[in-house]
Specification:
heterodimer; A: 114 residues; mainly beta; seven-stranded mixed beta sheet; four-stranded antiparallel beta sheet; 0% helix; 50% strand; B: 118 residues; six-stranded mixed beta sheet; 12 strands
């Protein structure tokens, strides 16, 4: 069964550094998302992406964050100048077009900023 | 105000019993979607079930069913014949407004930690 994949599974970085989190959405899906989950808290929406542009972003998604679909398969989240409070699990999700609403999540990348 | 409210932080249930996880939502939109996801201790988010606001029938997926009461703005998840493997965090989520254009980020509740006891 097709699934969303994410790399790396864990990432440790120093405060102030840049990180890139990678996702490969399900191949025939056209809508892509990033969410984050701070340890022990609820999942929070960051950004949605469709047709090579951002459709919607939350207040969390400040100008340190950016997303890109560099080729036909990858979808990346870049965080510049990382802060301690960026430490969280980051989930990528994707959805097919049309009436299929369900967003399928990847396994997540655990980011730790020291 | 919370968009999604899950009032049960934790639940203990005996194996093979049915369990109901509560979820109430708050929206002024006519078109919206409601989802339940399971998060085991390994951390991944597993889609369980979806209910659209215009769906007249309650959604069912195997042992999962969604008790959708639109007037009460509730979307409770019912798990029949619970199994030890059902032990996990369960999150209710909502998509508001028109989803055709991709502006459909989900809003999640705080979750319910379900523990199935043998």
């Amino acid at each position: 069964e097709p699934e969303v994949t994410q790399t790396p599974s864990h990432q440790v970085t120093q405060m102030g550094q840049e990180v890139i989190l990678r996702c490969v959405p399900i191949s025939n899906h056209l809508y892509f998302y990033w969410y984050r989950q701070i340890l022990g808290q609820k999942v929070e929406f960051l950004v949605s992406f469709y047709n090579n542009e951002i459709s919607e972003k939350s207040e969390i998604f400040d100008d340190r964050f950016s997303v890109e679909r560099p080729d036909g398969s990858n979808f990346t989240l870049k965080i510049r100048s990382t802060k301690l409070e960026d430490s969280a699990m980051y989930f990528c999700a994707s959805r097919m077009t049309g009436l299929q609403e369900t967003q399928y999540f990847g396994p997540g990348t655990r980011l730790l900023v020291l | 105000a919370q968009k999604i409210t899950q009032t049960q932080p934790g639940m203990f249930v005996q194996e093979k019993e049915a369990v109901t996880l509560d979820c109430t939502y708050d929206t002024s939109d006519q078109s919206y979607g409601l989802f339940w996801y399971k998060q085991p201790s390994s951390g991944e988010m597993i889609f369980l079930i979806y209910q659209g606001s215009y769906d007249e029938q309650n959604a069912t997926e195997g042992r999962y069913s969604l008790n959708f009461q639109k007037a009460r703005k509730s979307a409770n998840l019912v798990i029949s014949a619970s199994q030890l493997g059902d032990s996990a965090m369960y999150f209710c989520a909502m998509r508001e407004g028109s989803w055709g254009g991709g502006a459909d980020g989900l809003t999640f509740g705080k979750g319910t930690h379900l523990i199935i006891q043998p």
